[in-house]
Design goal:
The protein is α+β, with helices and mostly antiparallel strands. 33% of the residues lie in helices and 19% in strands. It is built from 9 helices and 23 strands. Strands 4-11-8-9 form a 4-stranded antiparallel sheet, with helices on one face. A 4-stranded antiparallel sheet has the order 16-22-19-20. A 3-stranded mixed sheet has the order 18-17-21. A hairpin with a 2-residue loop joins β5 and β6. α3 crosses α5. The protein is elongated, with a radius of gyration of 29 Å. The two termini are 19 Å apart. The N terminus is likely disordered.
Length: 448
Amino acid sequence: KNSTNSPSPANNSSNTAMTKNIEYPKYPAYKDSGVDWLGEVPEHWELKKLKHMFFEKKHSSDIELNCGSISFGKVVYKDDERVPLATKMSYQVVSKGDFLVNPLNLNYDLISLRIALSEIDVVVSAGYIVLKNSIELDKNYFKWLLHRFDVAYMKLLGSGVRQTINFSDIGNCELVAPPLPEQTRIAAFLDRKTAQIDQAIGQKERLIELLKERRQILIQNAVTRGLNPNVKMKDSGVEWIGEVPAHWEVKKLKYILKSQGRIGFKGYAASDLVNMEDGALTLGATHLDWEGNLDLSEPVYISWKKYYESPEIMVSKDDIIIVQRGSTCGKVALIKNDIGPTTINPSLVLLKEIAEQPEYVFLGIKVVLNGILNLVSTTAIPMLTQFQINNIVVPVPPKSEQISISEFIDSVSKKISEAVNCKQSEIEKLREYKAVLINSAVTGKIKI
């Protein structure tokens, strides 16, 4: 084929579109690999079954080695203290330079990378597959090729509820094998380029964290000190609030709102859970994020009968909900819109009939909860009792200032959120580019 053409994988036009954006030279001629995820490959590259390049290493044990596992394409150390000695004795050795494959429960996790070139000596579960090369090859190149094999194809293998595979399933899969010098060049190129991309991603992730910290500082200062930097201050009497403007009050929540949990709840019967058309939305801890937003992508509905049994926990616009117990204890959200008939499950406490500006009270609770949670997070199951919630102290400025502070924070938060979203979009594009670059290099769509 003419080298000016852009070779494309068989049956994979999306890859073609992506690789057109990568300005690298092409090989002079290509051939159809007959493998969908490989597509067309350089004419002089060989196609070989995995079992003709790798064999499954026989199990051997060594309790002196640390335990290990795969985590997102890396072989990492595992906490030995959590592995009983009898279990560790059944573990198999993975040596530096071996390839480790996690063949278990493929349908349970489509995100993690399941093949890794080990850089450490460890022992791993006997359920893993350990591969050693039977021919001379560049392991770094095959690290990248098997990465692509994992992402593009291996997760489609296997069968059954737990979708587990064995060596035979992957052994008969065809891979591509460039000449050894090209393997080395490609591996060095990908090591260098992916490191640069990962560095750029890391910088953007750190900037996102700084933006979020900045937002939290602005909220903290506005809620506890107001917007006037020259105002006279006084001690609030609360450690995690500090000084507040002299003309502000500090009040316990029980004096400015009504709190209500689900009392005497004995659990839902199967018949209580219904379709959206047949009942009311029920909010739980999973429907809140740490930013104070509702996530209703996986709603739960209970029957109208169950809903009307507890009118005291019917949720309305301008109510506040707090996660009361568990690992997400302390999440808090303001109901900003009318979301229709809604109630709460036992993990939440509902704050209603708020005498102050709801948006400001929500912000005040978020700020002071950080101090409260330090007291409850040391317990086995963190929990905020309704008594503790009622006695949370928040700074209370005049209503006009509450509104001004809320509007200021809303404006600042929107600007910071836009900046965060922009950086997250840039990160996503970098990750997409990295994936395309790996695929293009290891399958010969570009010449290195």
